[in-house]
Amino acid sequence: MAVFVALGAFLMTLAGGWTAQHVTDRRHLVLGLAGGLMLGVVGMDLLPEALAAAGTEVHGVPAALLLFVAGFLLAHGVERLLAARRSAHGADEHERTPEVGLTAAAAMVAHSAMDGVAIGAAFQIGEGMGVAVALAVIAHDFADGFNTFTLTTLYGNARRRAVAMLFADAVAPVVGAASTLLVTIPQPVLGGYLGLFGGALLYLAAAEILPEAHHRHTAGPTLLCTIGGAAFIWLVVGIAE
Questions:
Q1: Residues linked to residue 61 through DSSP beta bridges, in sequence order
Q2: What residues have CB less than 8 Å from 142, skipping those under 6 apart?
Q3: Is-contact 26 219, C-beta < 8 A?
């Protein structure tokens, strides 16, 4: 049952990626929307789930928040190291690095796999719980597909790579749900991963996606798209609750 329901997430992810591909003439609006979606996913979905799953404290601070900060710094450090390497080889330090886009997209795929695990684990508790979690995952997987394609192409990767990462992101929830038929991931481990991933995603939204969205474009419409993206995630989370 869990695997069958996860097919809905597969289709919704592809729908999000298809949408991102067909609005290239309004790229700055796409990026503004993606930034808002990412901000909403981090603040209203990933962090609350991470804190609930990994609630233990380390020296007075929840472990999930420590990993959130670590994820932010890790993303920043990786980008700076890649930029320094490009600079050492005579390339522009601020030129987009394809590896960053692929790494970010791979993190989205891993997150989608965890979504599938969440669906499978919920169905182990009960069918009602499984359906509720599945609806929440399916609703926000549109944003996941949208962001996966956008992140991959933003950093200069070819369209075929972006499509490949999008397909991997779509398949991941199905694989994650199927894996729960064999193993169960401890909640603290799952919570820690969500915190780490949330920090990295926030860095990409704040330091890369949104600055690029406002580069050489009127701020008003792009800002509205960003607010709309965050509000959409708020709506999805509210309905899921």
A1: 58
A2: 12, 13, 15, 16, 19
A3: no
pTM across the whole model: 0.70
Domain count, the chain: 1
Give the domain range for residue 104: 2-240
Cβ atoms within 10 A of the Cβ of 213, count? 25
- List pLDDT tens digits, range 87-119: 655 545 555 678 778 888 888 888 788 778 877
The owner of tokens 């989370």 is: 237
**Exposure of 60 in the CB half-sphere (CA atoms within 13 A):** 0
Reading the block at residue 20, the tokens are 């991102």
- Give the angle subtended at the CA of 127 by the CAs of 124 and 130, to the nearest 5°: 70
CB 200 within 8 A of CB 41: no
Query: In this predicted model, what pLDDT tens digit does every residue of 38-54 receive, in sequence order?
Result: 888 888 887 888 888 88
SS3 211: helix
CA distance 175 to 209: 29
CA distances from 121 to 93, 114, 116 (A): 44, 10, 9
Q: Give the three-state DSSP class for 61.
A: strand
